[in-house]
User: Fold this.
Amino acid sequence: KQPLSPNAAMALFRPILVLCAELHETHALVHRDIKPENLMVTGQAEEAHLVLIDFGLARATKNLPTATQHHSPHYSPLEQRATAFKHLQSAATDIYALAGVLYFLLMKKTIADAETLVMAHILIECQQRGFSEALTRALTKALNPHPADRPQRVRDWLTELDSALGVASPTRPTSPPVPEPDPGLNPELDPEDEQLSILSREA
Assistant:
């Protein structure tokens, strides 16, 4: 399919951003594997919406490691895939992946893996698409190689995106209902991570 307009992409992607904000802030979990392959489209045409799946790599924020062998090309930041980059993963790890997915929706292309080229690549692509400076800035900030320079909360990034698109962003968006925990969903989870199951059956 063709790349989506910024407004169309955000209309489709907003529920995922709201869900991840709830995941981080209310449940203290980081997904760590956000990518197009883990987003299911349900419904058709105007009724279509995205559902985030596969919480197999998710972890409680207090148990997050530095780099791991489990990561996805184009959607995993340095702190998740480079052993020499000694920085703990965090909510900013998911924000990088979310920005990578939004970039894919807007461009139908993945970002480059070479961090020295990422920013120049994104700027050129955004200019060619005629995106505003504010939207380009929001994308490049979330895709910064250094986690401390990214937005630290999904809600803050969502507010920045809405501002760039001229959309009024609610103070605290309503998130989808979360089912009760079911520890039996993933027996391999650490007991401290059993909260993961509350989101693995998201409708």
Observations:
- The CA atoms of residues 14 and 158 lie 8 Å apart.
